[in-house]
Amino acid sequence: MKKIIFSDIDGTLINDRLEVTPRTVQSLKRAIANDTLFVPVSARMPLAIEPLINNISENSPIISYNGALIQNEDGETIDSITIDLEEVIQLCTFIEESSQNVYWNVYSNNNWLSQDKENFWIKREEKIVDIHSNESTINEISKLKEVHKLLIMGDTNEIIECEKILLRKFPDLSCSKSTPYYLEIMRKGINKGKAVKILADYYHIDLTDTIAFGDNFNDIDMLQTVGKGYVMLNAPQEVKQLIGNITNSNNFDGIAEVLEKMYP
């Protein structure tokens, strides 16, 4: 019977050197050879996911932007949920006017618009995902047809305060921290858990025949939705306590340790 393996990317599929190890690649290839779909599930944009999975599978469905964009193995859109453009403009304006050490990033399909390319946080993210952003303005954002995600990045304490204010000012949006200094913003109701259910339904696969791997707070919904969710050893303690099934860390082939038992 066909199964699905869902996996977060940063802190889960890739190690701290931003690589998918040969052992993890082989364990996933073995699973795919045994009638199993592999699906990366990430806050990243599709363009930042594809290079990491090419060695695993040439044609994988992709869940990007924490579930705001879902594509099948041919790149066709299964589901796309966007943010109201007026809210995007208001939010970016608020960030520019009220924060000194926090910066906005706007994502539309495979386009990444950033507030300041020379900023430490944006340069750091460019290095992580190996993609260059396009420095932009709020006026240019207003010309976009759709926006899937905003990413607010910067000082940890300011991020905490920003989240409190944004949740009050924009009740139709949801916020989740993928790291202490990254605040992911999407339309309310979007999460990885809903996305994996939509994709499983699309392929007519029961959720009991799905597993998932994750390492952070924005993975919790996914890990609780699938048949069995595994949390990486490097995850925050609260996430490990909530999920319970703990595998090794992303630096020590935590995914492979589980899959080698499932697909010996």
TrEMBL record:
Keywords: Hydrolase. The keyword Lipid metabolism does not apply. It comes from the Bacteria. CDD domains: HAD_Pase. One of its GO terms (molecular function) is magnesium ion binding. PROSITE patterns: COF_2. GO terms for cellular component: cytosol. This is Cof-like hydrolase. It comes from Streptococcus parauberis NCFD 2020. The lineage of its organism: Bacteria, Bacillati, Bacillota, Bacilli, Lactobacillales.
